[in-house]
């Protein structure tokens, strides 16, 4: 074992000496591998980051959450729109039945959303107005820059209080004025602001709470006819951590069918939607994109690999006489093979590290530009797996494209090699 370690050490030192002594040749080899590793890692980083940000955007809607609505999230809506339109909207009777009948839920919230103009004196804007019941804070994580969430009594009595997003606060209350305790006008009535949400910024799907005005459901139903076919209400049910999604879905379905008194032969007059419908589609799309990215990256790597092979053949040619002398002095074939092979691997590993550094610089600059130029939250993700695969791929390229020149050097006859000078 000690002999092997000494052999690797000597081979590494010899390879490093050759790299330092032939800077231009080493630079050309490094350039090809650096570009190759940069291309393949940046492609996978871009795809992985896109996937991460899309899934993060979907998680904002609520992870482990089922949405009971009259329209399903599927292509069927386009062909059977009137069929689904005739379904009844989820209402408070459905909500109360689910509250008492679904035991596997962490939180259940009645929800309503509409775009509406909100005003404060001479300031106005179009906001996303939400009507929610008390458990909404369990469905969606909310962080407050000031103020608080609804109290139970405020929701039960339908108090005219509101939680607003950062954009709403900045437009309706410009300057340094605090929005807490002040009134805004929604649906022609004044409501008091009790909370302001922290700034989120838009994500990949354009989802943000910055332009939101959140009212409690019992208040908003006094102002809007929520039974209308052209008003969309939904019930969000978030499952407990220890409850399987299928079990929760079965509970919801049984409870809803009982509440709506549907016979066994009647089809559901409600839809149970979940994010996995989108996630499964997205996973298939991203799998195809990753395959395409790998195909493109493979060609970049091959170009760099051929450059390494070419440089290694030149290196063997230049050092033929030295190889002959080493072999005449007793160097084994394995030593010569390992020396040139390690040189190729070291070249590729240095190129791989430089490629990874370029990717890191690119994503750092990219995050800054996207955040400050487009005001969009986009997080680039470079996983440990990508780094390891990048380095392992560099070593593999060094082995694959360095083995033939190294083998050729190791098989030289000492006399022929010395005479070649």
In words, what does this structure look like?
- With 421 residues, this protein is an alpha+beta fold.
- It folds into two domains: 2-59 and 280-419, no CATH class; 64-274, no CATH class.
- Helix content is 57%, strand content 16%.
- Strands 1, 2, 3, 4, 5, 6, 7, 8, 9 and 10 form a ten-stranded mixed β-sheet that branches.
- Helix 13 runs antiparallel to helix 14.
- It is elongated.
Core attributes:
15 helices, elongated, ten-stranded mixed beta sheet, alpha+beta, 2 domains, 16% strand, 421 residues
Briefly summarize what is shown:
This protein is an alpha+beta fold and about 425 residues long. The protein folds into two domains: about 1-60 and about 280-420, no CATH class; about 65-275, no CATH class. The protein has 15 helices and ten strands.
């Amino acid at each position: 074992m000690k002999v092997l370690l000494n052999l690797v050490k000597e081979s590494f030192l010899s390879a490093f000496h050759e790299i330092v002594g032939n800077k231009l040749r080493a630079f050309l080899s490094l350039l090809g591998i650096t570009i190759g590793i940069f291309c393949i890692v940046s492609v996978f980083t871009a795809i992985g980051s896109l996937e991460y940000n899309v899934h993060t955007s979907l998680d904002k809607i609520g992870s482990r959450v089922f949405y009971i609505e009259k329209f399903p999230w599927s292509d069927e809506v386009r062909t059977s729109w009137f069929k689904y339109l005739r379904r009844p909207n989820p209402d408070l009777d459905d909500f109360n039945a689910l509250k008492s009948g679904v035991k596997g839920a962490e939180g259940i919230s009645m929800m309503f959303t509409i775009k509406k103009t909100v005003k404060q004196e001479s300031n106005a804007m179009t906001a996303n107005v939400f009507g929610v019941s008390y458990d909404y804070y369990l469905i969606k994580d909310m962080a407050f820059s000031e103020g608080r969430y609804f109290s139970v009594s405020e929701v039960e009595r339908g108090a005219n209080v509101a939680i607003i997003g950062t954009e709403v606060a900045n437009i309706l209350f410009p300057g340094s004025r605090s929005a807490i305790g002040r009134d805004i006008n929604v649906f022609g009535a004044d409501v008091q602001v009790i909370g302001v949400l922290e700034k989120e910024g838009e994500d990949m799907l354009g989802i943000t709470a910055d332009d939101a005005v959140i009212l409690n459901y019992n208040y908003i139903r006094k102002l809007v006819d929520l039974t209308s076919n052209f008003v969309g209400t939904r019930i969000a049910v978030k499952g407990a951590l220890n409850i399987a999604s299928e079990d929760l879905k079965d509970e919801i379905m049984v409870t809803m069918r009982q509440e709506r008194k549907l016979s066994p032969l009647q089809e559901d007059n409600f839809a149970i939607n979940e994010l996995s419908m989108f996630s499964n589609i997205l996973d298939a799309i991203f799998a195809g994109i990753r395959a395409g990215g790998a195909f493109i990256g493979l060609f970049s790597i091959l170009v760099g690999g051929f450059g390494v092979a070419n440089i290694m053949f030149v290196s063997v040619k230049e050092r033929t006489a030295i190889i002959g002398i080493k072999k005449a002095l007793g160097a084994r074939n394995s030593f010569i093979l390992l020396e040139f092979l390690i040189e190729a691997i070291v070249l590729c590993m240095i190129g791989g590290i430089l490629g990874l550094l370029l990717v890191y610089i690119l994503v750092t600059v990219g995050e800054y530009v996207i955040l400050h130029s487009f005001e969009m939250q986009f997080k680039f993700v470079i996983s440990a797996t990508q780094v390891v695969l990048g380095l392992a791929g560099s070593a593999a390229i060094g082995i694959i494209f360095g083995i033939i020149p190294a083998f050729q050097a190791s098989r030289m006859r000492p006399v022929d090699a010395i005479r070649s000078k």
